[in-house]
Specification:
Order of helices and strands: HEHEHHHEEEEHEHHHHEEEHEEHHEEEEH
Oligomer: single chain
Number of helices: 14
Number of strands: 16
Largest sheet: 8 strands, mixed
Strand order of the largest sheet: 4-3-7-1-8-11-2-12
Helix content: 25-40%
Radius of gyration: 23 Å
Structural class: alpha/beta
Shape: globular
Distance between the termini: 48 Å
Strand content: 15-25%
């Protein structure tokens, strides 16, 4: 009888296991330095991104996605850990914190995990994955294992196909493809280096400069942002300081975006070819925002809209057809991705994760306590002139407190979405200014960790090299 009971229990368990819905695969695509609006689906009139446009039509587009720190290293660490900069202390994971990252949790639950492309987080190495072709640069051209010159777009595509074609077929998988485009090749005078096949794109077009790309808008910024030594101004002079240069460099930036879009299409086609599309959640985002000459600035770092907003698409094929192509206007953050991946995989969300999982929003449900604002943090070492700041950000208002001289800025985003008019000295706005000062204190306490003015010499870019493994 005891043997019979064991057999029956085994059979019953096997039946339940067969009936259970398998956990979804997860494909996580990250663009590098992608301005949130430079895609077709986001409304750019020139940029050709047919595969991202199709993905947006099949998924949920988050129109107010943002990062809590606008620089690739910290943002990518926040995506791994679900934590703010002040909680991590730097762009890093440690042997103590790695087990609470979403890749570690999913692997512990049986997922086969892969990472391809950019690695800019100290402590993120091949040891945390089953498949690894991570690298810390270059951004455009590199050499393959045979010493042949290859563009990073093609390299990342090649490796993604190899992952999909060689993965174990009896396990769910996650794959993070961390593109290094459209990031500039900073040491190259041409900055943006597209693939030759994309060079004919936009040749006959004219890119319309943003309305805020004027000397007048530069003069409205705090004085320390106007300094010639400010790194955003240094890079602006490299890329955008003449009309001719602006057209050439911006078009090459667009060409990199279109090349990445083509790569994404090839990867999605391979998913479909293998019959995986209906059980693979696809997430596309960027690691930070990007200035394309707005306020006569370049790159990212600062708490302005161009810098902190990012694209975010989530295509979950298991959602009802009515959710396809929907827009969600709630405030969502890069720290929300880690708990979302855990929830999608059926894995408990680790307590250290500070973000909020997005699955209710995917279903069209907004929790009553969903955030109405968030804390933005940025600090930098003394290596470059990049001023640090904290900010309270909502869809209606933004309050920025810069570390330099405790300078304040206040913007009414409803009336001034381009952040052209600093209201911090407007007597009519005193009550709003006081409210947001208090809110900054509250958010600091909620987020916790080391105050950003106490974080020194963050090891940005100091990424240990790990031996690639298939």
């Amino acid at each position: 009888m005891k043997i019979l009971a064991i057999v029956l229990a085994f059979v019953t368990g096997a039946i339940h296991a067969a009936d259970a819905t398998p956990p979804p695969n997860i494909l996580f695509l990250i663009a590098d330095d992608l301005s949130w609006h430079t895609t077709g689906y986001a409304g750019d009139p020139l940029v050709k991104t047919p595969r991202l446009d199709a993905l947006a039509a099949e998924g949920v587009v988050f129109t107010h996605a943002a990062v809590t720190t606008s620089i690739c290293m910290v943002s990518r660490a926040s995506m791994l850990t679900g934590r703010w900069l002040s909680q991590m202390g730097a762009a890093k994971v440690t042997p103590e914190t790695w087990p609470d990252t979403w890749p570690a949790r999913l692997r512990a639950a049986g997922y086969f995990g892969g990472h391809i492309g950019k690695v800019h987080v100290k402590g993120q190495t091949a040891a945390g994955y089953d498949f690894w072709t991570g690298r810390n640069g270059p951004y455009a051209w590199m050499k393959d294992n045979l010493g042949e010159k290859i563009h990073t777009i093609d390299m990342d595509t090649r490796n993604a196909l190899r992952f999909l074609q060689t993965r174990p077929k009896d396990r769910p998988f996650f794959l993070q493809v961390a593109y290094t485009v459209p990031h500039a090749e900073d040491a190259d005078p041409k900055q943006y280096l597209p693939m030759p096949q994309d060079e004919p794109l936009y040749a006959g077009d004219r890119v319309t400069p943003p309305p805020t790309a004027t000397d007048d808008h530069l003069r409205r910024l705090p004085p320390f942002l106007q300094r010639d030594s400010n790194e955003s101004r240094v890079r602006w002079r490299k890329r955008f300081d003449t009309p001719e240069k602006y057209q050439e460099y911006t078009k090459n930036y667009y060409r990199l975006i279109s090349g990445m879009d083509r790569s994404i299409g090839i990867i999605l086609d391979e998913l479909a070819k293998q019959g995986l599309a209906e059980n693979t959640v696809v997430v596309f985002t960027g690691d930070n925002g990007y200035f394309l000459g707005e306020h006569e600035l370049a790159d990212k770092w600062y708490a302005y809209e161009e810098s902190l907003r990012v694209p975010l698409i989530v295509r979950d094929p298991r959602l009802p057809a009515a959710r396809r192509g929907q827009r969600c206007d709630e405030l969502v953050l890069n720290v929300d991705l880690a708990p979302t991946f855990c929830t999608l995989a059926g894995v408990p969300v680790p307590a250290p994760m500070q973000g909020r999982e997005l699955t209710p929003l995917l279903r069209g449900e907004t929790p009553a306590n969903w955030r109405r604002d968030f804390l933005y943090q940025f600090t930098w070492s003394a290596q470059n002139d990049i001023p640090g700041a904290e900010a309270v950000c909502s869809k209606d208002w933004k309050y920025i407190r810069w570390q330099e001289n405790q300078t304040e800025e206040l913007f009414d985003l409803r009336a001034d979405p381009r952040e052209e008019h600093n209201l911090s000295h407007d007597a009519v706005r005193t009550a709003e200014l006081e409210r947001l000062r208090s809110r900054l204190t509250e958010l600091r306490q909620e987020v916790g960790g080391t105050p950003i003015d106490k974080i020194e010499n963050m090891p940005f870019g100091d990424v240990p090299k790990a031996k690639p493994k298939p």
